[in-house]
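Thread: "does anyone have the structure for this chain?"

Original post by V.I.:
We have the sequence but no experimental structure in hand. Need at least a predicted one for the grant figures.
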Amino acid sequence: MVCWVFGSVFLQFLLLTEINYRRKKEVQELKQSFKDSAKGRGFIQCLGVASECTQLIANRISQAKSVRNTFVGLYDSDNPNIVKSYENWLANPGKETWEDIVGVREFFSGRYASIVAGHAINSHEVYVLRHYMPILNFVILKYSQDVEEVYWGWEPGQRDPEIFRSYETTLINSFKSYFQELKNRTWNQKVNKNKPFFLDFSKVGAERLPGAELGLVNKEGIWITLSYPKRRRRGSSDVRAINRFGLIKFEIDTSEVKVRAKIYESDGTFNGTAGVNHEDDIPRPVIAHYTNNVFVGYQLEGTNSTAVCHYQFRRKDNIDIIQGLYIDRKNGTKNTILGVRLSAEQAPELYNDFKINPDKDRLFKFLNSSVAKISQLNNFENLNQGATFDE
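Reply from O.Q.:
Generated one for you, tokens below.
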């Protein structure tokens, strides 16, 4: 009975993952059914809300020989108590392996950059999911060959969910199978021959992350994208042929990818806005997201003008870029897109409040610096042909 009840729940989680990562209502209903199935069973203990049992779990982690952990869509990725758990475990002799399965958002969050473990003696392996999925977060702790336990209940988007614990072997094996299935849906399978990413704790901050050479791109932030008329044949590119440009803000919160856009003509004239907050009375974009590709269906504010954009994020010549394609639905014209991220130092006003419209002097300062950076990329003339779906 235990195997059937919980095995079917894990199968449903995986099916939801494959079908549509934004079906929040169904995911929440499934998680509630999981809780209802768990409550009242002698082999499962409800520990209370997450904030009440953080220290208990930290103590148990310190005693474990191996850890299998997931954190996807959680608010407290930089929690000092959690970071301390990593530090203590990594420096404690006699351990085996700590495995993390995380999202791209969590991989680039402050958790791994915050860990102080320059003399780590234990193995820390990281697997990065290829796209956001509504998983049930959990941690499996192994103390010896015959003694294990599992904690679960951390839900994406929930501030203080109920946490459960079990020592029941069949249930733990179900979580182990779930962990392996999630591993099969990671970047590691594609770009690292299914091997884990190892963090170099001798380095400081983001420098210890191996994502740069492996093709993982942090999509979050404000980008400036340059639109060029799509040419029928490959050839030399003219950076002066920009016909419009955009300021695009990408966010990945605990449940979805969010895109906000401001579109400008090549002379700096403001064309329109698309994809701002729910409370704003303008259309939100339709978004699909997979690996380093984001597909967006836009409609400009107060108009019937609609477009489809394919943004493909890449690591090129040691900088993150967007290579994309923009299709105007009204007239069918196609434009290629190249873009780079604006740093918070370059555009503090936009990072503070993306709703503001910079004046033309500021816009052209952003534009000129971006054109200079993009035009210096190796093989620029071929990059300017647009995105190709090769992920």
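V.I.: this helps a lot. DSSP finds twelve helices and 17 strands in the chain.
O.Q.: and The longest helix spans residues 2-19.
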